[in-house]
C-alpha cells in the first residue's frame, strides 16, 4: 500500500509518503517566516503559499522516498478542521492528483491524524487516552479500539496553544509563541507569580481564556512590561498551563483506567508537559509521545491515519 498524504490545514505545507508500514518521506515547508511579519497566521496568505509550495514538497518527497508518482496508490488529505481556504487548496490538489493518477482519495480529520502520529513508532493499547493539545484544540479523547474516538472533554474557549501564542504576542516575543515561552520558562522560577487555575472542577473540560486575561492583567497592570521578570513570568505561565492539563488528565485516568496515554498536537512539543505526562507511566499505564517532527502539523500523521482506515477496511478504495 503506497499512500501519498497532504496536510494544508494551517501554516505548514506538508506531504508524506507511506509504504509497507513505514513513513518514507515527511516533507514540511513551514510558512512561519512569512506570517511572523504580520504577528500571526494570515489565512489568505496561507492558502496562496500552499499553492506556491506544493510542487516543491511533492518533488522532494518523491525523491526522498525514491518513489515514482505513478507508484502512488492512494491520496489522503486533511479535510477538516482548519483554515477553510487552506483546507480547500489541499482538497483541490488531492482531487487533481487522484483524478490524474486514477486512484482513490481519502478525506481525513486533522485531529485524529494528530492521535495517529503516535502510532507511527508505537502499537496502541486500548483503552487509550489521547491528550490532544494544539493551536486550535484542547481535548481529552478516549479510544476503546482503533478509529473509535470518544471526546470526554474539550476547551470551552481558547486552546492551550492559542493561549501561549496570545500571551507571547502581548509580550512581543514573536510567533508562534509556544516554543519561545517554553524556552524562556526553562530559566525562570515557576512560583514567582500567581496565575489562576480556571475550571478546576470534576469535568473533563478546559478553559484558557481566564488564564489569558489574568496573564494580560499581570503584564499590563501589576508590573508593566519593563518591570516584569520575563523568565519567572514564563515559568509561572507554563507551570499553570501544565497544571490545568494534568489535573484533567489525571481525573480521566482515575475514572477510565486506560492502558495507554498519549500526548499529541503541536503543544506536545512542550518540554514541561512532556515531562509531566511521561511521569504518569506505571507498570499498568504506558505513556507514548510522538517524535518531535510528528508533533506539530505534518502529513506523516495523515498518512498513518489513512493506513489505519485502509487496514480496518473502512475505505474500500473504489
Ligand atoms: O498542531 P499544531 O502544529 O497546529 C494546530 O493544529 O493548531 O500546533 C501549533 C501550536 C501553536 O500554538 C504553537 O505555539 C504550539 O503548538 N507549540 C508549543 C510548542 N511548540 C509548538 N506550545 C508550547 N510549547 C512548545 N514547545
Ligand atoms: Zn494540528
Automatic annotation (TrEMBL):
This is tRNA N6-adenosine threonylcarbamoyltransferase. InterPro entries: ATPase_NBD, Gcp-like_dom, KAE1/TsaD, TsaD. Belongs to the KAE1 / TsaD family. Its cofactor is Fe(2+). The lineage of its organism: Bacteria, Bacillati, Mycoplasmatota, Mollicutes, Entomoplasmatales. The gene is tsaD. It is an enzyme of class 2 (transferase). Substrate binds at residues 132-136, 165, 178, 182, 270. PANTHER family: TRNA N6-ADENOSINE THREONYLCARBAMOYLTRANSFERASE, TRNA N6-ADENOSINE THREONYLCARBAMOYLTRANSFERASE, MITOCHONDRIAL. It catalyses: L-threonylcarbamoyladenylate + adenosine(37) in tRNA = N(6)-L-threonylcarbamoyladenosine(37) in tRNA + AMP + H(+). GO terms for cellular component: cytoplasm. It is found in: Cytoplasm.
Amino acid at each position: 500500500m503506497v499512500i501519498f498524504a497532504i496536510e494544508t490545514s494551517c501554516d505548514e505545507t506538508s506531504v508524506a509518503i507511506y509504504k509497507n508500514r513505514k513513513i518514507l518521506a515527511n516533507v514540511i515547508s513551514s510558512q512561519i517566516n512569512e506570517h511572523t511579519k504580520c504577528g500571526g497566521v494570515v489565512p489568505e496568505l496561507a492558502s496562496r503559499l500552499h499553492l506556491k509550495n506544493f510542487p516543491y514538497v511533492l518533488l522532494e518527497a518523491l525523491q526522498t522516498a525514491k518513489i515514482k508518482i505513478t507508484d502512488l496508490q492512494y491520496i489522503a488529505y486533511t479535510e477538516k478542521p482548519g483554515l477553510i481556504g487552506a483546507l480547500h487548496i489541499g482538497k483541490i490538489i488531492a482531487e487533481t492528483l487522484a483524478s490524474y493518477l486514477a486512484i482513490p482519495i481519502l478525506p481525513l480529520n486533522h485531529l485524529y491524524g494528530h492521535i495517529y502520529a503516535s502510532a507511527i513508532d508505537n502499537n496502541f493499547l486500548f483503552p487509550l487516552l489521547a491528550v490532544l493539545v494544539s493551536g486550535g484544540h484542547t481535548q481529552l479523547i478516549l479510544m476503546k479500539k482503533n478509529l473509535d474516538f470518544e471526546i470526554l472533554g474539550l476547551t470551552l474557549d481558547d486552546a492551550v496553544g492559542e493561549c501561549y501564542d496570545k500571551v507571547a504576542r502581548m509580550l512581543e516575543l514573536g510567533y508562534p509563541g509556544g516554543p519561545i515561552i517554553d524556552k524562556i520558562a526553562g530559566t525562570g522560577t515557576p512560583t514567582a507569580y500567581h496565575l489562576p487555575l480556571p475550571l478546576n472542577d470534576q469535568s473533563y473540560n478546559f478553559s484558557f481564556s481566564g488564564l489569558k486575561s489574568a496573564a494580560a492583567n499581570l503584564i499590563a497592570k501589576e508590573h508593566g512590561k519593563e518591570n516584569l521578570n520575563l523568565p519567572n513570568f514564563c515559568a509561572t505561565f507554563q507551570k499553570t498551563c501544565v497544571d490545568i492539563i494534568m489535573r484533567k488528565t489525571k481525573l480521566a485516568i482515575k475514572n477510565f483506567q486506560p492502558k495507554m496515554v498519549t500526548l499529541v498536537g503541536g503543544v506536545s512539543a512542550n518540554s514541561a508537559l512532556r515531562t509531566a505526562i511521561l511521569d504518569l507511566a506505571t507498570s499498568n499505564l504506558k505513556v507514548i509521545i510522538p517524535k518531535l517532527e510528528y508533533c506539530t502539523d505534518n502529513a506523516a500523521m495523515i498518512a498513518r491515519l489513512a493506513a489505519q482506515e485502509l487496514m480496518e477496511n473502512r475505505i474500500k478504495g473504489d
